User: Which sequence fits this backbone?
């Protein structure tokens, strides 16, 4: 991941949460032209005490403007992560799991919370309002509050916004978040009709695996056809989420538990997926599709993830620069579309990691 210029070295950001005996935090590492890496720097200035970071998002045009979802709402940095500010967010102590930009209006942003909550900013993140019609359908109560874990907007239908819920399926808004439709009925039916899609774990329903959403993605190469990452694999809708089809990623990968699916910001045909054994397994992998999800090839050659692969990212400024992170804090970065990888471990004790970003 070479520098974008002599004065702008590339950076990797990663974050995690406090869980049992693990500690959380938010960290940055600078990458030089020769790919030598500095030590991880804990980012704290202006952030909540004992910060937890669950999502990191770069501004689509301004390189040094970065947003992070914390346990006390979204925060923003305008200097590449050196300092942070709490935004005009209406509620305190709200855990933010997802942040996304409107596909055509960069001043419009969305944020998702746990328990289920959906917020919108119309002024670039300066101020936010809660959109109260986004509620938890309550399909699968778990031992933790339902998380609005993923948000995606459709470039072909800019007011279509999708929210992935862990663990309660998928919602869609057709008016920028004002009102919502529950898209989970067909996910539940798939679990009823197909034995291999049943999964109960700690819930009271065999549909929990299909309702266990982890990420949602849309591409301009196929408007109206969202991709959904769930416990049981990757599913795609042909009709804006009314019905869902299994893309059968198991044809390519021995691991099908999907934690993250994303579209490259440089090529709408290119998707990446994090596939693992299970939520807290001992193996994970990174896969790429060059044909809008029809076929997949493995990318994690030359390194071994010792835990679930949680998240992947493409640099918004360099399509060859990639990063991914395992739950136990291994960060992997590539400057050349996965031809070579460089591994770095987050500081000791940071082992419940959710997110990574590079650029």
Assistant:
């Amino acid at each position: 991941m070479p520098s974008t210029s002599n004065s702008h070295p590339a950076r990797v950001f990663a974050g995690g949460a406090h869980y049992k005996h693990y500690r959380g935090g938010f960290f940055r590492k600078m990458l030089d032209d020769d790919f030598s890496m500095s030590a991880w720097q804990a980012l704290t200035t202006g952030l909540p005490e004992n910060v937890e970071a669950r999502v990191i998002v770069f501004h689509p045009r301004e390189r040094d403007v970065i947003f992070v979802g914390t346990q006390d709402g979204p925060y923003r940095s305008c200097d590449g992560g050196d300092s942070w500010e709490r935004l005009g967010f209406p509620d305190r102590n709200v855990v933010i799991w997802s942040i996304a930009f409107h596909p055509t209006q960069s001043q419009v942003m969305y944020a998702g919370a746990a328990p289920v909550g959906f917020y919108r900013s119309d002024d670039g993140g300066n101020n936010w309002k809660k959109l109260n019609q986004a509620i938890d359908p309550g399909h699968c109560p778990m031992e933790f509050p339902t998380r609005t874990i993923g948000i995606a907007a459709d470039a072909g239908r800019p007011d279509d916004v999708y929210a992935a819920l862990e663990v309660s399926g998928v919602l869609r808004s057709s008016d920028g978040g004002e009102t919502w439709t529950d898209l989970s009925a067909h996910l539940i039916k798939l679990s009823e009709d197909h034995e291999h899609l049943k999964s109960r774990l700690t819930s009271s329903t065999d549909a929990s695996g299909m309702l266990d959403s982890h990420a949602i993605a849309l591409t301009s190469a196929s408007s109206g056809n969202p991709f959904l990452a769930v416990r049981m694999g990757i599913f795609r809708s042909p009709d804006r989420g009314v019905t869902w089809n299994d893309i059968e990623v198991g044809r390519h990968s021995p691991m099908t538990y999907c934690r993250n699916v994303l579209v490259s910001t440089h090529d709408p045909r290119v998707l990446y997926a994090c596939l693992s054994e299970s939520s807290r397994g001992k193996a994970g992998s990174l896969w790429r599709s060059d044909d809008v999800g029809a076929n997949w090839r493995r990318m994690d050659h030359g390194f071994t993830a010792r835990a679930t692969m949680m998240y992947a990212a493409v640099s918004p400024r360099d399509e060859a620069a990639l990063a991914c992170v395992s739950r136990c804090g291994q960060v992997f970065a590539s400057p050349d579309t996965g031809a070579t990888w460089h591994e770095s471990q987050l500081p000791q004790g940071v082992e419940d990691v959710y997110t990574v970003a590079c650029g």
Observations:
- Helices lie at 185-193, 208-211.
